[in-house]
Amino acid sequence: MAIVSVVVAIIVVIATMVSEAIVKYIGQWLIENMVKPVGQLLIEKLVKPIGQWLGYLFHYSSNIENMKEQVKKLRDVRERVPLPHSVDAATRKIEEIETDVNKWLENADLIMGKAKEVIEDEEKSKMRSSYAICLNLKHRHQQSKKAKKIVQDINEVLKNWRSDKFIHMDYMNFGSRMLTVKRLMAALGDANFNMIGVWGMPGVGKTTLVREVARQVKEEKLFDEVAIATVTQSPNLIKIQGEIADKLDLKLDKETPRGRADLLRVMLTEDKNKKILFILDDIWEKLDLDDIGIPRTGCKVVLTSRNRDVLSSEMGTQKDFGLEVLQKEEAWCLFEKLSGDSLVDSNLRTKAIEVSTACAGLSLALVTVAKALKNKCLFEWEDALQKLRRPAPRNQKRMQEVIYSAIKLSYNHLESPELKSFFLFCAQNQVFSSVPYQDLLKKCFGLRLFHGISTLEKARNRTYTLVRSLKDSGLLLDAPDTSDEFRVHDLTRDVALLIAYETQNVLTMRDEGLVEWPDEDDMKMCTSISVFNRDIHELPDKLECPELRLLYVYAKDREGSFIISNTFFKGLKKLKVLDLTYMRLSSLPSSLKLLTNLRTLCLDQCVLGDIAMIGEMKNLEILSLIYSEFKYLPREIGLLTHLRMLDLSDCKKLQVIPANVLSRLILLEELYVGNSFTQWEVEGLNNERASLAELKHLSRPKDLLFEKLKRYKIFIGDVWDWSDKHESSRVLKLKLNTCNQLESGIEMLFNGIEDLCLDELNGVKSIVYELDMKGFQQLKHLHVQNNAEIKYIIHSRGLVIDDVVFPALKIFSLKNMINLEGICDAQLPLTSFRDIRILKMEHCEKLKFVFSSSIAKGLSQLQEMEIKECNIMRAIVVKEDGELEDRDMILFPQLRHLKLQCLPKLMSFLSTQNSIITDVGEIIHEGELDFQEIPHTGMQPLFNEEVVFPNLETLELSSIRSEQILLHNQHRASSSFKLTDPRFLNLRNLTVKGSGNLKYLLSSSIATSMIQLKYLVMEEVLLTEDLGEEEIIPKELFPQLELLILNDLPVLKRFCVGSNIKFPSLKVMWIGKCPKLESFIFKPVSSGMTLSKELKEVNSEEISQTAMQPLFNEEVAFPSLETLTIKHMENLKIIWHNQLAEDSFFKLQSLFVDHCENLVNIFESNMLTRFQSLKRLDVTYCGSLQEVFELQRHDVREAHVTAIPLKILILYRLPKMKQVWNKDPQGIFSFQNLQEISVWECESLQSLFPTSVARFLMQLEDLRIVDCGVEEIVSWEEVAARFVFPKVTLLLLFKLPKLKWFCQGVHTSEWPLLKDLKVGGCDQIEIFTSKILNFEETIEQSQLETSIQQPLFLVEEVRG
User: Fold this and answer.
1) pLDDT of res. 625
2) What does the sequence similarity comment in the record state about its family (predicted)?
3) What distances in angstroms separate CA 740 from CA 589, 684, 745, 788, 932, one per listed residue?
4) Residue 294 CA, distance from chain mean position
5) Deepest in the core among 256, 505, 1034, 1165, taking most CB within 10 A?
6) How far is residue 514's CA from residue 968's CA, in Å, rounded to a whole number?
């Protein structure tokens, strides 16, 4: 033992004198030569522990570096984990979904905290001399041991992270899934729904979603039991019954399905109070619940299916939820998680993003592909991407087979061969992201795809019907933003093309690359060939395809002429549909006339030369030239006597349609010339161009327009917007200077018109009876503008109106009708305007009201109303003489959106005829109205009690002079109010702008009733009191409010009166230009009748006496607020009270403060810990601001260091700011997450960072300091410092005339990733030096040389 002691003593002494390498060598020599002879016992008991001790010492550096690398990995993973508070408060059930996740987060944070301590200690050690380091071997051993243990802990935590439950949590936390889960849970809690459906395309994630719902209902105890069973396309009743019994812990001892069903039903109904949820997954056809044994009453059933029709029609679900594919960002997040650590390589990651995109949001594809490619090489990823983009009929990989079989199963289950064939045809015609209905119709009709159908209208109906069936089956999807198209999911399309290739000999070549035509034998079998977006500039000399019915070539460009030989079409005798798109065709090949079976010819988006040959194709039924460039429609087109559709839409260069061409197309059903030919002739003037009068010959022998022509779009004049699409089949838009032009045949167009727009039309005094005697019975959309002569839309001429007028009208708009006095000058039948949905009126100078109350009561379908710039309008609806008082008049029960703008004379929404006739001018001038006298003045609010909008969602009022907008009743001083007000229960968006006389916005009773309000905007309003009347508001206000804007309210003093008020859902708040807003909530001391007196006393105080009040105090809470903007609040001195509501501002992510001239600071340290989500802070144009973070009052004895999550800090034009932090936050706060810092025009600023902040800016990427008074970037401490900025790529220092040092004290700085360095106007500092300094020498000289100018950068390496 003595020998061992001597050995250890010698090692310790030597270790204090020599370097680590020598220690290692001597230690090994001593162990080898002195310890071994002692024997094996000593080796086991003493040497190995000593070796282990020395191992920690020898591997100190590698252990520390390894720990840093692992901490970086853990931090990257930790940042991707969704924080519990980031989930919407309404779905707390999903927040609590994974207690394991919270434990994982706690473990990760604990480990990173330990690692941080080790790293900080290691940084301090580097500042000491080498001699001091050698003396502290014991400390180095301890730190090395800690680092190794931390690495082991991190590996374990990362291993746990990759478990499936985390992937599941991420999947269910996606917005698209959370919303569906939330709605489904709400439906399960609704007593009105017992049968609920979830449907969607194969592989979209229906099973995953309903199983999550099952877990949640168990956790929240909504049901006592939950049973899940899988049905499949071949239901096995015994298996289904067994799954249900197993989940409910029941035993079925019967053998037959019927016996088991009866027994199960008895067992399930024994306890009448027991609530059971049944989930039947993957239903394909009607399933009788009695056959399973599920009771009809006392339980709820959730069904999933690929087919919506199975759920709603066959199973009788009361509520259905469609599940869409994942959004692009969600899809990548899921794909990345499933791929694990295999995407570290940047090249592989880029390819993985492309693969994820190719999966197009389909959960099944994402999971299958990610698992199949996990840990694979780059070439395997590239191969998989190729196969996903261009699936081959043969040699499919396993991942493709899974996707293929799921989709083909849905295809096989389609109910008819016609539907299957139509589905495959839809997939063939999706060139880009969607399929236009019109394009599909043209080809379907030409191919005679629908048996027994001979008209375009019937073919169109069949097309829409089949598309709807396929949507219900999940095989087709809605196109975004348009109802004129639909789409096929990319993977569904690929599977359909494979099926079409195998079963119908359909060949499709798409996307990149040259065209490779199949061999001769395969070509002879082809029935359809489609070439999309390939590099093709010519067709073969001849194509021998005797069975070919369809040829579709969509070229990639049309720069040069596309070459088609004169012999090409000789071998295509059965061709019925020819589509040549996006080509330059100087002429058509002569062999085209050999196509005697051709029914549809599409030459769309082409630059066309001579196309007269089309006239020789006598059997042609559809000719489409949309978006093509040509000037002259050949006269030979008139020879196409079998033509049913002529589509010349968007042929903007078309100048001539010869006279008498259209009149010869006697079978024409549909004519489209939208955004195209406008040079129509007046009948009888000359015979050079077509006239509208020709169209009456299309329906001979009857001289009525369009008996055969079912669809048309004709625009005359240059004022119409062709992108304005309404679902109408007969559209006429006319700009005519005089009514004389109506005599040239145009008047016949009004019969049966569905969409009519008129501009000018001078000489016309009314619309109904002057243009159409029958009252436009089929008109759906009427727009009239720029007419100075029409006084009434409906002019009775003194006669009784018996006919119902505009019975089908849905959209009614009037604009610039400066002499319009009314809609009608007589009593209308009550069902007139009965179907109107949208009403818009703008700039009707003489219009005093819109509707009489008798007509208004019949507008049960009205959903949107917009009235603008009608200068003498007194009311929207006027009560007719003799009408009885109705205290609960429900006007417009379906009204969703109401906008009233620039109506200076508007008295009330609903008024009497007498008050409308009398021109009273201003009702009450500002300043003459006393609050308590309101009941006696006769003044009425804009919306009184008789106006009820039970479904109103959006209300926008702009430049309305009413002094009151929404009051519950005339007894406003009463302290009591109703809990609900039926008039505005569903209001979601309230905007009030430019209403100069407004005294109050809401009564407290109405504010309380607005439980659905999400957006409240107030701008340019002269409020003389609060937003609410003088009643104390209840504790929770506007529970759904997400956006609040208070802007340009010059006399607003407070939002409302009350205490402990919470805005539970508010996410975004903007407060600007409210100079008298002292405190957001005023808490009264008194109550009852003395409250008004107290308010008046407060209102009379000068702003200077109350200016120190904080904007936000403990009386108001914003638990969900994410973005706060405060602008142009010149009198604001304090934003936050030192005591705030317990849960307020915890989720605030972005704070913008601008033009607050008297503000002194932004944050005081005693509240900074509250802002644990703050990521961005912008402070601009605050002339008195002295510091951003005021830390003087903080208790420095607090041991815990709070990490502030701030990432972006922008400071601009703060002339009095001397420092950002008024003291070094070391030991109190950490700002280690900062990524971008920009400071501009802060002339009093002396330094930017305290040392402790600068030393830990490991995430900083962008640093800009411009036009400031800084002398140093980092304030000096009397200790040598080392600054490392590992991620900074941009450093901008400009116009800093006082800058002398980066840091006045001795220091080193490292910028390993710096790419962009811009320094200018910094004349007192040297940018670079090449002098090599010994670090120890630098320390020794530091006491003498701290005032010597130091360079910004040392370009050569510092010697250790």
Assistant:
1) 95
2) Belongs to the disease resistance NB-LRR family.
3) 47, 14, 11, 16, 62
4) 41
5) 1165
6) 73
Q: Is the peptide bond before 701 cis (omega within 30 degrees of 0)?
A: yes
Of the candidates 125, 123, 1341, the one whose C-alpha atom is nearest the C-alpha of residue 1350 is 1341
Q: What is the pLDDT of residues 315-345, one digit of tens each?
A: 889 999 988 888 888 888 888 877 777 776 7
Q: In this predicted structure, what is the pLDDT of residue 1326?
A: 77
Quickly tell me which residue has 């590992």 as its tokens: 1286
Helix, strand or coil for residue 1273? Answer: strand
Which pTM was predicted?
0.63
Helix count (H) and strand count (E) of the chain? 35, 61
- Are 490 and 357 in contact by the 8 Å Cβ rule? The answer is no
Q: Give the whole-angstrom CA distance, residue 709 versus residue 1007.
A: 55
Q: Please report the pLDDT score of residue 398 as a whole number.
A: 58
Is the Cβ–Cβ distance between 1203 and 1228 less than 8 Å?
no
Listing DSSP states for 441-454 in one string gives HHHHHHHT-STT--
Q: Residue 1198 above 70 pLDDT?
A: no
CA–centroid distance for 87 within its chain: 16
CA distances from 1014 to 280, 983, 990, 1040, 1120 (A): 36, 17, 8, 5, 13
For the chain, what is the largest distance between any 2 Cα atoms, rounded to a whole number of angstroms?
131
The residue type of 856 is: A
Burial 797-814 (b: 16+ CB within 10 A, else e): eeeebeebbbbebbbbbb
Whether 544 and 574 have beta carbons less than 8 Å apart is answered as no
CB 440 within 8 A of CB 465: no
Helix axes 2-15, 48-58, angle to 10 degrees: 10
C-alpha 1191/C-alpha 1199 separation (Å) is: 16
Please state the separation of Cα 100 from the chain's center in Å: 30
pLDDT of amino acid 829: 79
Q: What's the CA gap between 306 and 310, in Å, rounded? A: 8
Q: Identify the DSSP state of 978.
A: -
Task: Determine the 3-state secondary structure of 1265 from DSSP.
Answer: strand
- Residues 370-386 have a mean pLDDT of 80
Stretch 803-828: mean pLDDT, rounded? 87
**CA neighbor of 662 nearest in space, from 646, 683, 674:** 646
